[in-house]
Amino acid sequence: MIHTANQSTKVRALLSSCLIVTALSGCSNQMASNTATAPPAVIAALEAAARGESHPDDLHPDTARSGKAMTALQAAFDVKHYTLSLKVMPDTRSIEGSVAVNFEALSALDTIQLDLDPKLDIYSAMLGSTELKVRREGGSFMVTLPSTLEAGNHSTVTVAYGGKPHVALAPPWFGGFVWSEVNGTPWFATAVQGDGCDLWWPCKDNFADKPDNGVELAISAPKGVKVASVGVLTGMDEGDDGFDTWHWRSRHPYSGYAVAINGGPFELIEAEYAGINGSSYPIQFWALEENADKARALVDSDVIPDLEFFERILGPYPWGDEKAGFVETPHLGMEHQTINGYGEQYKRGRYGFDGLLHHELAHEWFGNVMTHARPEDAWLHEGYGAYMQAVYAEETVGAIGYYDQMYGAYTNNEHCLPVANPAVEDAGEAFDNRDIYTKGSWMLHSLRRYIGEEAFWAGTRRVIYDTAEPWSLSYPIQSRYRSTEDFIAIMSDEAGEDVSWIVETYLREAGMPELISSRGDGKLSLEWSVPGDRDFPMPVDVSIDGKIHVLDLSSGAQSIEVPKGARVLVDPDSKILRSLPIIGDCSEQTDEQIQNNIDRFTRMAKDFGWQRD
């Protein structure tokens, strides 16, 4: 939510999944018609959360911190695979199940540490038939192994657990389980990007340890509810207890928050897509039955053109050996790997395409296959995710679409914190900074204009795939972590010069460079004033009566002769991210902005029919 500099880091900026609709121009308020009203307790909690105040729905502080630095115990083992078996009981808003964690010891250890919200009970921990001692400590728990596991050896611990998981207050920003229904049939989802997988299953809640060999899920839900999840559907078992079990499996690594389950009265819409690398893969859209025709139309109008765009610009869809998946959710949306949540209600966007669907799909490249190495590098997900909508808008409606998107990004900058901020310690703190979207996208714009098309897009592909020519890559495509330093090194290599001064100035400082200009005595003088007194030798285009002149400011202030009465435009094509007198600084964020977001959250609670205990 929009926040001031001194607000609690518990405040989630209105960002986490719906970029263009959030960070740039505000999320859509057009959702499913529902005459229910949000319970007063929900509204009160939303108001408190918006202001960074404590409220009854507060998470345990450990649980709320996703992606924080690993403890020594956590760093001592590497998760290889998760097998999650879970029964979802919407009538009681509860879950029961188990997680088998297969791991490798990186050093000799006799204890492993996992994370789980204290609201959920741990029933047992087993290694084969041996019951293990469990000790809970805040939002984590320690499992004592029967003997020391030496470095390089593997083991599997199975944790049985259950209870009533945290109910999302305002998903996806304030996450957890989302409960709703459609014509009497349960409709549920999980959305936990800001708060982590430990909200609903035992895991190592750190994106720096993805399960190398993938995940497997067996999700039981009431009959009439179809369950959509990650990877490939391998079967469905009909139960005699009123529940059916849906089996999903993926061989790919996953960030914990990117593992999701979704249940509802869905109809599966399918198509086949011929990928740029010569492989064909399925498109699957799990839509509410009443919206099946809209989903079919959306696949044709948006999903297929979006895939063509991303593959042409970036390279092969990363998970073509499984599926390009989408599911209609009782919340706005989220970039869950191979099963993107979609809640924009099939509304065509102002640029001729569905911006939410496009943004979440962008995260399959920027976030899921290429993952930020540290919370401070979250802009690699969201800056790129935002920027790709501007690039696509340029293709759909021309330059006016591109610059309208970029203007919206500019006016939504906050100037509160650096974009790549080493002080950020967890995912929640990273996403509290809206500028990871807005300023991140503008840095990419300015860098692209400086180094040129070929170098910029080749560097982007290397950031994702480690090659500038990924077109023939076969599956599986390797996941990788990237940092801001990696980005600088790759872009500098492609540009043939060190571009750290561009990236560092924009991302490591809260403010922006200011171009100081003065005109008199037949001359125009320009000079950069840069936060932190950083070196910023950015050349500036000046249009004088339509003729472009380039001023090299690398050695300081420069002047150019200007005829009397000439029309002068500085940076006429808006190539450079710089301070302009059209937005305020962090201190100018207002209570009115906060209230606007409270109003929008409570509208969503009503329109999506969110249900609580």
| Fraction of residues in β-strands | 25-35%
Mean pLDDT: 91
Alpha carbon gap, first and last residue = 25 Å
- Helix segment tally: 14
Rg over alpha carbons: 25 Å
Number of strand elements: 28
**Low-pLDDT windows of residues:** 1-23, 25-35
Q: In order across it, which strands form the biggest sheet?
A: 5-4-8-2-1-11-14-13
Helix content: 25-40%
Largest sheet: 8 strands, mixed
Approximate shape: globular
Q: What class do helices, strands and sheet pairing give?
A: alpha+beta
Give a verbal description of the structure.
With 613 residues, the protein is an alpha+beta fold. 26% of the residues lie in helices and 29% in strands. It is built from 14 helices and 28 strands. It is globular. It starts with 18 loop residues before the first helix and ends in a 6-residue tail after the last helix. Keywords: Aminopeptidase, Hydrolase, Protease, Signal. InterPro entries: Aminopeptidase_N-like_N_sf, Peptidase_M1_aminopeptidases, Peptidase_M1_dom, Peptidase_M4/M1_CTD_sf.
